[in-house]
Design goal:
single chain; mainly alpha; Fumarate Reductase Cytochrome B subunit; two-stranded antiparallel ribbon; 8 helices; binds protoporphyrin IX containing FE; Di-haem_cyt_TM; Cytochrome b/b6 domain-containing protein; transmembrane; membrane; metal-binding
Length: 245
Amino acid sequence: MSELSVKEYKVWDLPTRLFHWINFFSILLLMFVGLVMLYKDALGIQNVEAKIALKQLHVIIGYIFTINLAWRAIWAFFGNKHARWTEILPGKNYLVELKSYLRSVKSGSPKQFIGHNPAGKFSVMVIYLVLVIMAVTGLIRAGTDIYFPPFGTIAAEYVAKDGVDPASILPYDKTNVNPEKYQTLSAFKRPIGIIHLYLSYFLMLIALLHIAAVVKAELSGSHGLVSAMLSGRKRIAGTPEDGDL
Ligand code: HEM
């Protein structure tokens, strides 16, 4: 029986790897602090200052997460072949490539790719979309909940009573706010909070699936996906479909 030769290929460049690990750890922290916020009553966190501090901590980690995500979108114009938008967005032959890849998986000898295989590309697309919505809804909640940038000043100016300095409006403090405008703001931010919460559950689910899939690939010794995200190099048996760099 002839053995396929295993070769190592350059895949993820350094900025893409840095993005990935900052993204991974910031999401992990956001989920952790988010869950503490969600179960604050059960955890005995009742004092308002502590609740605000938790939100502030979540938002500061959220800024790191958002800046990293924005940086990744910019890098997709400049990075190596596997860092580009073409690796993230479906091209015009995407469905044909996906079907052909799925057929090869069914047949027991999956086509090999240096970058994402067509099925992986689909999950990457969904994950990025969810992350962008999490960042946007999070930033809106940060502005409307605790008057943090970039929308905090607009929210505070909107709810401040006539003649009150918007900078003096504090989270959870209704003394200087116009009650009607505060209600309107609450009605606006509620659905945004619901999207943020339910998408965070969805993200927890896909993050678990993603981790399970890469650990399985790592243990099977086929690609070493975790190692590839650390070293930037991927081992592939046979000829990859997406060529060498
Ligand atoms: C993938 C990233 C994120 C995850 C998994 C996540 C998760 C969560 C969770 C579980 C909650 C609790 C929901 C609740 O109390 O109803 C929450 C609330 C919140 N998040 Fe995030 N979050 C993320 C990103 C962000 C970002 C980027 C920001 C802003 C920069 C942000 C700002 C907020 C704010 C202000 C709240 C409080 C909303 C409220 O009290 O209802 N989040 N987040």
